[in-house]
Each structure stands twice: as structure tokens, then as C-alpha cells.
Structure prediction request, 568 residues.
Amino acid sequence: MKLDALDKRLLETIADLHGVPAGAFNIRRNGQAVERRSTANIEIRSKEDKPGIDVLIRPGTRNESVHIPVILAASGMTDVVYNTFEIGEDSDVLIVAGCGIHNPGEAEARHDGIHEFFVRRGARVRYVEKHYGEGPGPGARILNPQTIVHVEEGAEMILETVQIRGVDDTQRVTSARVASRGRLFMTERLLTHGTQRAISDVTVELIGEEASAEVISRSVAQDESEQLFRPRLIATAPARGHVACDSIIMDRARISSVPEISARHPEAELTHEAAIGKIAGDQLIKLMTLGLTEKEAIETILRGFLR
Amino acid sequence: MLQLQGIELALPNGNGGNNNGLSPVLRGIDLTLEEGKFYAITGPNGGGKTSLARLIMGIYRPTAGHIFWRGEEITGLSITERAQRGIGYAFQQPPRFKGLRVRDLLELAAREQPSDPNGSLLRRLCHSLRSVGLCPEDYLEREVDASLSGGEAKRLEVATLLLRKVQLVIYDEPESGVDLWSFDQLLRVILERHRRGGMTTAVITHHEQVLLQADEIILIAEGEVKARGPRAEMWPLITDRARCRWRRSCEEENDEAGCTR
Prediction:
């Protein structure tokens, strides 16, 4: 199956791809693998018991990347995919995922991506996932990602998720367990507009000594959209963690932010902060004094906030 | 030339009481700023200096009166339109932006000036940062958020204006929050920019060093222009008034506390 112009544009939007990526990759379109490449150190193979892939990264692999974008360009389709990532000890890699939906019809188009990561001892991985929806039809564009992370001793995971725009409904579930000296940095950036709805549940358990986690959420809710954030940080060991939820609310949108921290060890140190507010008037004024129109100023502020 | 004629300004007072919840802030302001001159605007806190600057920039709209800039009436123009006509304003307390980097802010400021064919945009940004004592390597990628100190934010504010194509620039208390050494450098940059750019510069200030550089000093108190004139004429008046005011406020304070110093 060949990629058409629409596919290429979606790939550029969600994975910054301008052609076939260097390194390992797997491109999935409408529930089918379109193109795939493994490398000497990164093997991608299909699961035998359910739809999805296993990505096996050999121990010690460094400065390599894997791209696994998904395109959904059909109405009335639900694509469920299970991907497992085995990131070998002492490796250091980049994984770029993302899903772009183009819904041309009246029925919903839905992608449920269930991703599980095993970040082995001393490994470091940066995972970037972008979500985007578009299409002329009234059919809903739905994305329900589920991310399960196991960070082993001394390993590090950087998890960056972005919902650019156009996703009508999303229920995001992220859970992570971080072992001794392991580190997790999670940033979630999300824009909703129209009557869209977004729910994000994040649970991070710090289970080993000196484990640490930082969970940062930044969101913008426009029009009549709704957002609900429920980040939970649990420490059962002498570990450190911080949760920060920061949202800009506009128009008639609604946002709820419910951070929770829970310590089950006397040496645990957990903090949280949450803020919801409109764009500050002085920010707008400042950019307008540089010659920007009010519309340009708003766009600049939102773009920076969700960067 | 900037001309303010019969300017009145009232702003919400927050108590919704008299005058539809508005309190007079500026009264009967008639003021002209001539091309190429360096003005110091001074006076007691709460006297209306910042309100005047914000009014010139279009952040506040007058309740009466007219503003002309280079012969064009700009009273009804927006902030953007005034900025596009070459009016610039450096905030007393620059706002912070989560996610916006120093580089982004500087690029926005530089966008109206075509790049020098011999120098890249990046070079211009770096030069503006260095001019105000900020090392580009340390600051370009930093966010303009609360992690910047007050002094750093003020210096960045001046750097932003250095990149703009302005003919009238108002600095609102550039000395506040800036240490003495950094302020020396900032003032040098402001003066150099003024002299080389041939622009009209107005600095709202309480700082003697700035007052001593001004072609003219404008004294604003209780929402009115109390006096204006060449520095040499204004200097004794300014220092006398400052002493008077200080003495009066001490006496009032002592009366209230029922004690004497």
C-alpha cells in the first residue's frame, strides 16, 4: 500500500516526517502495517496473538530512533493496537509515535493505542507522542491512548505527549512504576476546542529508594470544551515527586484539575501545584506593544504555553 | 512630536462608588514631547506617571482629550496600531510567559526591522542581549517565566526595545529591581540608543542619574503636570519638592503614630 498526499501530510504533522525516516520504523494505516524497517539493534516484529508490534531494542543501543506513527483515514473504523517496547539495559534511544485521524464521513473514527514500556536497568528513553484530528465529515475523531511504563533501577523515561487539535474525545490513561534511582519525566500538553472532551488519568508509583518523578500537564481549553485531569503520585519508598497542572481556560470551556499525592513512607517527598486561569491581560498587552494584533498575541501565548 | 491636549483619565477604583466606580487619575494634561529630546518624568508614587505612559501607548484610553503623534490623531488607535507607528513602551513590571523563550520574544520584537544583510537575525538577538549584560548562551533558550529575576526581566525588556524600530520610547522605571552596576549599564544603553537613533525618549524615574541626563524634566503629581522645563531650571524645584514631601510625610506619620522622631 502506497502512502498518498494526505497520509504524508498527517505523518508530517504527528511525527515531523518528511519521508521515510532514518532508523527503524513502522507505519500503520487503517489498521494495517504499511511499511516497516528493523535495524541491527532495533527489531520490530508483529505480535502473534493480537494486533500490534513488539519493538526490541538491544542492550547498549545508543543514539538510535524508532518511528511508529499511525494514520486513520477512514470513517466508521476502530483501530485497537497493542505495542510493547523492550528497551535494553544501558541503551539511549528516541521513540516517536503519534496518531493522525482524518475522518471523511459521519461515523466515528477511533484509535486505541495500548503501549507498554519496559525500560531496563540504566536505559534512557525519550518517547514523543502527538495526536491530531481533522476531516470534513461530522464523524467524531476519538483517541484513547493507554500507556504503561516500567522504569527499572537507574533507568530514565522522558514521556512527552501532545494533543495538537481536532480530537473530539480522548480518555488518556497513563500508569508508571519507577524503581530505585529510576526517573520519570512526563509532560502532557493538550488543546481542546469546540465541544471536545479530554480526560487524563495518570498514576505514578515510586517504589524504590531515590526514585523520582515529575508530572507536568499544560492545557488550553477553548470554546465549550471540557477537560479533566487526575494525576496521582504515590510513593512507597524514600522517593521524590512533583505534579504540576497548569491550564488556560477560554470562552465557555470547563476544566477540572485534581492532583493527588500520596506518601506511604516517612522519607518520601511529594509536592503538587495546580493552576487554572485565563490569559493574563498584561501578557496580551506586552505582545501588542511589539506590534502584534490581539489575535496574533493570543496565538503566540498559546503556542508557547503548549510547546 | 507627541502632543497631549486636555487629557483626562479615570480608571475603575474597585469600590463601584462615586462616579460610576471611576476615580480620576490624570487631569487636564497638556503636554508636548519634541522629536529627538530626552525626557525624565518624575514625581511621587501614585501621581500618574505610569498611567500617562500607558495612555500614550494605548493601554488606557482617555476619558477626554486628544493625542497626536507626528501630526496624526492617535487617540482612538489600538496598542498594536500605535506600536506599528513606532511607539514603544518598556514595562515597569514586565509580564512573564510560560513556554515563551527569550529568543521568541526577541524575534517578535525584531520582526518589523529587516535584517542587516551583513548580519543574521540571531546575531542581532545576541547583540541586544549582550548590550544589556545578559549572556546569549545562558538566556536565549530560557523561558520568560518566573525563573527570571526582576532585574533579568527588566534588562530583557530593554533588550526587546533595542530590536524594535521605534521613534518614541518610554521606559517605565528601568531602575526598579536592577542593581546599581547593572543599572549603570542599562542607562548607558538607553542613552546610546537615544543618541544614535535620534528618537524621542521618555524615562519615568526616581533616579538622580537619569534626571541628570535629561534635556527636560516633567514633574507629575496628583494626576497633573505640576512643572516642566529644562533640567537646569527644574533641578532645584525637584529637590526642594522631594525634601518637602519627605518632611511632610514624616510629620504625618509621626502624628498618626503619636510620637516624634
Summary: Residues 5-279 of chain A form one domain. Chain A touches chain B through 22 residues (CB under 8 Å). Chain A has a mean pLDDT of 95.
